[in-house]
Amino acid sequence: MGSEMGSRRSVRRIPLFADEPANLAELFYFALDKYDRPDALTSKKDGKWESISSRELVEGAEAIAAGMMSLGIDRGDRVAILAPNSPEWTITDAACQISGVVDVPIYTTLVPDSVAYIINDSGARILFLQNRESYLHFEEAIRNCPTLEYCILFEEPDVEPPNSMTLGELMRLAASVSADFRAGISEIKPHDTATLIYTSGTTGEPKGVVLSHENLLSNVIDAGEHFGFTTDDVPLSVLPLSHVFERTGMYLYIFNGMGVHYAESIEKVADNLKEVRPTVFVGVPRIFEKVYARAKLMAANSSPVKEKIFDWAIDVAKEYALRIQKGDEISASLEIKYRVSDKIVFSRLREFFGGRLKFCITGGAALSDSIFLIFTGAGISIMQGYGLTETSPVISTNHPGAVRLGTVGKPIRNVEVRIADDGEIEVTGPNIMQGYYNKPDATREAFSEDGWFKTGDIGEIDPEGFLKITDRKKELFKTSGGKYIAPSRIEQMIKGSRFVSQVVLIGNSRKFASALIVPDFEQLSSYARSMEWRFETPNEFCASEEVLELFVSEVDEHCTGLARFETVKKVVLLEEELTVKGGELTPTLKIKRRVVDEKYKDLIDGIYGE
User: Fold this and answer.
1) Which residues lie below 8 Å from residue 469, measured CB to CB, with a gap of 6+?
2) pLDDT tens-digit profile of 70-81?
3) 220 to each of 30, 59, 248, 254, 413, how far by Cα in Å?
4) Are the CB atoms for 438 and 121 separated by under 8 Å?
5) Nearest 5°: phi and psi at 262?
6) Where would I find the beta strands (DSSP E) of 135-183?
7) Residue 175 has what DSSP assignment?
8) Partner of 209 at 20 to 30 A CA spacing, among 20, 308, 377, 541?
9) Which DSSP letter does residue 429 get?
10) Whole-prediction pTM value?
11) What is the 8-class DSSP label of residue 233?
């Protein structure tokens, strides 16, 4: 990749620990020697939590690595992993790292054509899948991948599909290979490629981000510096490991000697939180928005009195947290209200997460100030960070020693951030990608003339060094009057309404800004009962003038302090949620604005009388 990088800035990393691993391969042996946990990885199988030890993790990785060698897979070859989170996922990743094989994680939510594109672009020779059902779902796409030689199934099928084998069969092939992987890890250099992670493609086809051992490992160590992790911490793995945020999180857990639990599924997260009772929880803002919405709905469904009590307590939480953020004194009356609120509302919110959380870490999208204040005020600390796949991923983060409302914290150790003349955030550090696979032109365009990575985000740095994101550079749109509007900030304001599930701001080359809103139909139904409205289906709600008036007033109430040209003039309600399957969202739940514009073109044209 070096010839593609042009004038990329070279950054020398200063180690934080004398004994820290030199590459990801060494990380797994480091954890075995230092911690040797009996419960390194824990997952639920047949209704029972089962653990794998640190030694079983390493021995399993060595067996898989040897099995791949027996199939002719060499250092630098690519293999793809298309499966939900599991110990097998992590052990297979470890196998790739200790053998110098490059793994290519693929989201299970992608459509078959996208899966085929990634396999073909990366030249993957092996595809790891969860089970036979997954194989059959992607079978047609797999047939269109000429470089693919083997499919490996994590689970034992009743009937094995053609051209496939199980993970157990692959591991048994290790007997035919003589290899000392531990002795060979010193041959893996920091700048060797560890993984290819394909971006979601919000503005075009996915690009394979080339990340080295140093990129990922430096981020693991430097991003975790101020969090005070210990071997007593218990994380619950929820986000997909195909996402670099969760992947780096997994390495961080292993580096710090934690015992990891895997959530069974998104649907089972609430149950798993109560069972595992994590001390550390990593999630995207959408999770916290849904937790709050669910708590609000439960209060509303209980009785009007309980709903009013809940709302009162939430206002107390926000006021309490805001005063602490500003360094203002907590009055005696507020302290009394807080203690009452804590007993009747906040304690239940904390119990939802298991009751012993030290803090939550969030990233991947903007966290609204309202959600931050609600949870922080309720005694659930949320540390918001910022990064991209191309930055491995963490650039900056709030941490227990430094939290500021409305920011994504300060740059992590060894990472430098600057703001370009046009407001774009630019970054340099050991976490910056090697480039885009097979895309030298795109790689050159991603860097400034003096070698800083251009994030594509607009932001600012306050006098104390906290970074604030104001919008995506590519998402800024200009009205027909020549005024630029940053949609994300306004969308966050609108999502402050409990009735709003999703929102997309539109208005590029139009006279004014409008909002496409997907209502939270559960919240709306609860409100409708109190108003004695006789609407039941999404269609009936969205066609109602009373409901539309409600949303217009909610938008006006939450969008305060905007310039006149930023004001949302019209609101349109959508019956169907925007989804990954429908193509409107990326696997990381970011809006594909181009897709939304195309899908709802007639509706949008109607808003503007075209």
Assistant:
1) 366, 386, 408, 425, 457, 458, 459
2) 999 999 999 999
3) 14, 23, 6, 10, 11
4) yes
5) -100, 130
6) 150-153, 164-166
7) G
8) 20
9) S
10) 0.88
11) -
